[in-house]
Predict the 3D structure of the following.
Amino acid sequence: MTSFELKKWRVIKLGGVTRSEERKMASSMDLRLKQKAVIEFLTAEGCSPIEIYSRMKAVYGEMCLDVSIVRRWTRRSREENPSESTVHDQARTGRPLSASDSKHQSRVDQLIREIRRVKQIDISIEIGISQERVHHIITNLLGYRKVSARWVPRMLTPQMKLQRVQICRELLAKFDEDGEDFLRQIVTGDESWVHH
């Protein structure tokens, strides 16, 4: 059994990772930055990618970057001006990191309030974000759940609370009018939520 298979077995068998492995994973980004700096330095000295890889492998062992990554970073380092290069990643254009921003949340909430039976895929197409993000916004951020093919809030909204108060006042007024006869008409039981 290789060390990778042993670690994989340990993670599956024990249901997690050890503290030392957690520390290694937490510092893996720092380690990548350090190795990138080493690659840039040794490239500036004129070392070949294979030589850089073998020297790094002697120091970092199993945590060393793959030889293909060393070659790629060496090539990039040679193309860049050493005084202008940085080991940190540059800002990238393209899709934002998160589609769960407040703009998308309010738009999803608006669509659900307009059409309670709206499907996630329809929301996804309308807004232009993935179904996974739509599901995350609906269930985790807005607190809705699906009941009889309709999206309903998990928590009482101010509108629902006001409606409950109004119904209680109506029932109290009927009790004042009918007295004991009104109480005989009531069937009691556990609390249930009725969504319509």
